[in-house]
Amino acid sequence: MKLTTxxxxxxxKVHYKGKLYNVTTSSGNVFVNGxxxxxxxGLGTPANERVVAGMIHKSHMGVLFIDxxxxxxxxxxxxxxxxxxxxxxAITGQSERSAGAMVRTEPVPCQFILVAAGNVExxxxxxxxxxxxxxxxxxEVFMNETxxxxxxxxxKIAVFVAQEVxxxxxIPHFAKDAVDYIIExxxxxxxxxxxxxxxxxxxxxxxxxxxxxxxxxxxxxxTKDHIIRAKKIARTLEQQISDxxxxxxxxxxxxxxxxxxxxxxxxxxxIGSGINYSGxxxxxxxxxxxxxxxxxxxxxxxxGEIAKEAITNVSAxxxxxxxxxxxxxxxxxxxxLQTYEGVEGDSASIAVATTIISALKKVPIKQDYAMTGSxxxxxxxxxxxxxxxxxxAAIAAGIKNVIxxxxxxxxxxxxxxxxxxxxxxxxxxxxEVLKEVLDWKGKEDILKxxxxxxxx
Length: 456
Fold this sequence. Notes:
Elements: E1 7-12, E2 22-24, E3 30-32, E4 35-37, H1 55-58, E5 62-66, H2 74-86, E6 88-93, E7 103-109, E8 112-119, H3 128-137, E9 138-142, E10 146-148, H4 151-168, H5 176-190, E11 195-197, H6 200-216, H7 224-233, H8 237-251, E12 260-262, E13 264-273, E14 276-290, E15 297-300, H9 305-326, E16 330-336, H10 349-361, E17 364-366, E18 369-371, E19 374-375, E20 381-382, H11 387-397, E21 401-405, H12 416-419, E22 423-427, H13 430-437, H14 444-455
Parallel strand pairs: 5-8, 13-18, 15-16, 18-21, 21-22
Antiparallel strand pairs: 1-8, 1-9, 2-3, 3-4, 6-7, 10-11, 12-17, 13-14, 14-16, 19-20
Helix pairs in contact: 4-5, 4-6, 5-7, 6-7, 9-10
């Protein structure tokens, strides 16, 4: 229920001519491109007077790369801006070779190409003048998280695997079935049909973990089995938390996967951010009580802004179907059970609508179902993120049926053996959800009323 972040790379264009000259005179002073530095690194110069160039000067006539640029202090960003604008800057400060005294030279040339990286949300914290300079004289590039799943790009991943093996120097090379499985993992992590993940750092970690398993087995090559075992051992913190969440919630019957219950549904969510997330089962309950002058739908569970807006959208659906029924001083309470980490996003919308209708009309919900999907105010089920991770969480919890938006079918990449244990039901609208997951025996007239309302 979270959305993911991407890297932004900023490039400052500079054209250069000439060379850098660094000459120590007999007096111990230094000439740098014709500028005399009053403090030098000559052998006869005291330690506290030696000049040690920083990165902006070492990058002169080259490239300076700064990752997470917004974490630089505002004063440092201002200094960087001055260096870019003037093309020269004084060498100042204390070095590890000094005796603690501050040194400051005359301005020294420092013309360079700046490449700066940061997450989308952190760019807002950059020094505004520095970012304006980059936008005005360079480029801002939104980096892709995935690439097309083509033979050429699959070959690139195979080359990457070989490079990681060579770089590690301790693990064996990968057999063909192992390389194919790494490519399949890149598909799964892309979370998008027809694409491969570009998050090679995480794939590299899996390559090394699988290699370690093969080393323990004293195998000549890394096989698919080694990778599968490595995935179980080298799980991310989010995956480990998800495992414990499901285990404990089942142990204390917070997650129920059998039988039928009124006003209780198994939603699906993700924890974590970016690509480091894992699916969890999110139980949701609803109860109808006598209310005040005007009926309300109240939700609890540390909800974020998007989640609160989703509840408002669900309210429109409920009023459309049962407006006459709920206007008589009744409140509907919705609880996201034990969501101490909070709830963000709108992918629980169809689960919320289902549990409210169940509580309002006393229609039982089948507990061997779980569901995920956003909901429009007109009752259409919209696509969500993290569908594969959510399905994997349902499988881990022992749930037999999962309802997903039909538009997300193309994004499902789950191991074939795992998919055999579950039935996936794609839906287009909330009526299809209700027909599938609620036990309408004896209350078919309510379902007919909903279907008639949808046709109007």
